[in-house]
Hints:
By secondary structure, the chain is of the alpha/beta class. The chain has 14 helices and 13 strands. Strand 8 (154-157) and strand 9 (160-163) form a beta hairpin.
Amino acid sequence: MSDTIxxxxxxxxxxxxxxxxxxxxxxxxxxxxxxxxxxxxxxGQDQVVEQLLMCIxxxxxxxxMGVPGLAKTLMVHSLAxxxxxxFSRIQFTPxxxxxxxxxxxxxxxxxxxxxxxxxxxxxPLFANIVLADEINRTPPKTQxxxxxxxxxxxxxxxxxxFALPSPFFVLATQNPIEQEGTYQLPEAQLDRFMFxxxxxxxxLEEERRIARETTxxxxxxxxxxxxxxxxxxxxxxxxxxxxxxxxxxxxxxxVRLTRPGEGTAPDFIxxxxxxxxxxxxxxxxxxxxxxxxxxxxxYLVRMEDIEAVAHPVLxxxxxxxxxxxxxxxxxxxxxxxxxxxxxxxKMKKAA
Length: 351
């Protein structure tokens, strides 16, 4: 197969095959159509839709934080529709048991008269895209069953193991307002989510459009633009995107700068942060940056791609201390400062 070398100003470290160049161009075109199709029912939230797609293409899972009424369920359902993927929604409650989401054995009649046998009935986890609504409202035992499925892509019930469908994505939600009676996810479990995505209120103009366009008639029926097989192929494509060595160095350096115990950590990190991000953050930075690159038609990863995914990857992996909380300094603000200092440092070295 012949190879196409990307332009020198992109600083590649590996050639890109003609097939992958064509596939990246196809994905970029499909991405534009997909966003336009989803925009028929979801007004605004363009960044959230993009981050969800990056997470899906990277084979990760996402945690969405937003108040009720911001169309989180509709957004996820719409993405499943346009990608022809099976969708399931689980409303997490305090009385939800692990078997309620994984499935359980049911005693049923067999083909032979008078004989019955246990048959495994699959739970709502057996879908391509699973919306875990208000995951912090269910006890840790049920949370753990979900997180095990996320990690292993399989569930165990009655001593038997069942593979989950592929592709498989979990998009969990949390309500930041009502925290009474909830079971907060511990840091170790939060770390299993690739992205932490904030769903914000719409702008003034977007809210006007919502009022005009969603109160008149039936919602639009979305076209199916992808198949499950195409999604799997695009996932493989994302894995093959070349990453220059200096981009690996930037990702590692950024993550290590978040750790107050590291000698290279800035003084403000040592002052405001209790715990920084672990090695999994480096992996997700690279994976997310690859997905961001191909969605925007780039044939390899650049620093701009790392910057684009830094906030959703690192926000839930930086634990601020009491001083930061008392001063209203959040982890997104800390990440923004780290990115600025890292960018300035790279520009000085390049000068």
